[in-house]
Specification:
By secondary structure, this protein is an alpha+beta fold. The protein has helices at about 15-25, 40-45, 70-75, 80-90, 110-120, 180-185, 205-210, 245-250, 270-275, 285, 295-300, 315-325, 385-395, and strands spanning about 1-10, 30-35, 50-55, 65, 95, 100-105, 125-130, 130-140, 145-150, 155-165, 195, 200, 220-225, 230-235, 240, 260, 330, 335, 345, 365-370, 375-380. The chain has two domains: about 1-195 and about 340-395, FAD/NAD(P)-binding domain (3-Layer(bba) Sandwich); about 200-335, Elongation Factor Tu (Ef-tu), domain 3 (Beta Barrel). Strands 1, 2, 7, 8, 9, 10 and 20 form a seven-stranded mixed sheet that branches. The radius of gyration is 25 Å and the shape is elongated. The mean pLDDT is about 95.
């Protein structure tokens, strides 16, 4: 069976549905294809099931890419306030958790239902649980103008435009694949190096033995690497470190590099220690007033035995060294927990080959890439969903 549509969108996630809605509103006949049986699983599981759907403070500086300016146009034309207006139209209640992060009060399923209804209103056609076998760009029936031929395990579809909204490699257990990158390479596009991002870090056993038993302990800290710094919680796990600050810094860390952690960012630690230099209290006991007890017990194990003594036995220079350890704890991760736990994929289709206004491939008229498959990655906190909405909206105006 052959179908003819104006637009075929491959990938019915956040970006794909937004693009379909906008194209459908323009009167374009749109077909959304997805290989999953269940719609938008990544939206459903996000934000602990409540979907951190945007961030009030979204700006280009919250994204990284080989071209940091590429995202500006799309973000300016569809803002967090635009998406908020859409969910308010549907009466979806939401709240700001922290730092501009907006979540549904009830369930992420409300966002999925809203997008589905908007697609239906725009008369978007669907094919779910369908595998795309090939995408080609050819002249049909000796016509001069090329069209796209999309062959699936169900049928063949001919269209003027194809949008690749297939996401990245993160969370393969819900169906993530390299399909979008394969299509890019098929059409001669460069894909920048891919790596898991917004992901926990692991450590070699010899570097982390002292902390292996404190899984679940969280500390408010500043984590820095390669010129970037984030202050939020770090969380000890069985394999290393996670928590918001670690997820953020994972996007800047590279193998064999050191991360720097200030465990007491709210204090002048040198003065704090010097104020207690005449105390008979053990250093570890003093610090449990400022840091979790289980962490301090583990921390002491990581220190030289000569460092475990009452405060009054320390020389001033020793206290300064201890302050340095606490405010600049330096550790070298052995790796990350990988795509299975990563929230996003860093890297993607090189933006130099795309129009920032339309998301169209410059050398292949009618071919578009949007969302996570593109080399634009947001910080933690709703920014990646906003990129999905904004890039999908941008392409939807032109497909």
């Amino acid at each position: 069976m052959k179908l003819t549509k104006d637009v075929v969108i491959i990938g019915a996630g956040a970006a794909g549905m937004m693009c379909a809605i906008e194209a459908g509103k323009r009167g374009r006949s749109v077909l959304l294809i997805d290989h999953a049986a269940k719609l938008a699983e990544k939206i459903r599981i996000s934000g602990g099931g409540r979907c951190n759907f945007t961030n009030l403070h979204t700006k280009p500086e919250n994204f990284f890419s080989n071209n940091p300016h590429f995202c500006r146009s799309a973000l300016a034309r569809f803002t967090p306030q635009d998406f908020i207006a859409l969910i308010e139209k549907y009466g979806i209640r939401y709240h700001e958790k922290k730092l501009g992060q907006l979540f549904c009060d009830d369930s992420a399923q409300q966002i999925i239902n809203m997008l589905r209804k908007e697609c239906d209103a725009a008369e978007v056609a669907w094919q779910m649980h369908v595998k795309v076998e090939s995408v080609s760009h050819v002249c049909i029936n000796d016509e001069a103008e090329k069209q796209f031929v999309i062959k699936t395990n169900r049928n063949t579809v001919i269209s003027q435009s194809v949008v690749i909204a297939t996401g990245g490699l993160s969370i393969p257990q819900i169906g993530a694949s390299s399909f979008g990158y394969q299509i890019a390479e098929q059409f001669g596009l460069t894909v920048t190096p891919l790596r898991p991002a917004l992901v926990g870090l692991t450590f070699a056993p010899q570097d982390f033995n002292a902390f292996i038993d404190i899984s679940g302990v969280a500390i408010d800290a500043v984590v820095s690497c390669n010129g970037a710094s984030f202050r939020e919680n770090i969380l000890f796990t069985h394999r290393g470190l996670s928590g918001p600050a670690i997820l953020q810094i994972s996007s800047y860390w590279r193998p064999n590099e050191t991360i720097h952690i200030n465990l007491l960012p709210q204090y002048d630690v040198v003065n704090l220690l010097l104020e207690h230099r005449r105390s008979a209290q053990l250093l570890s006991s003093l610090l449990t007033e400022y840091l979790p007890k289980r962490f301090m017990q583990a921390w002491v194990k990581s220190l030289p035995m000569t460092a475990i003594k009452p405060m009054k036995q320390y020389h001033d220079n020793e206290l300064q060294q201890m302050s340095q350890r606490l405010t600049d704890w330096q550790i070298i991760p052995s790796g990350t927990v990988g795509y299975k736990k990563a929230e996003v994929t860093q890297g993607g289709v090189d933006t130099s080959q795309l129009s920032s206004k339309t998301m169209q491939v410059k050398q292949v008229p009618g071919l578009y890439f949007i969302g996570e498959v593109v080399d634009v990655t947001g910080h933690l906190g709703g920014f990646n969903f906003q990129w999905a909405w904004s890039s999908g909206h941008a392409a939807g105006q032109y497909v």
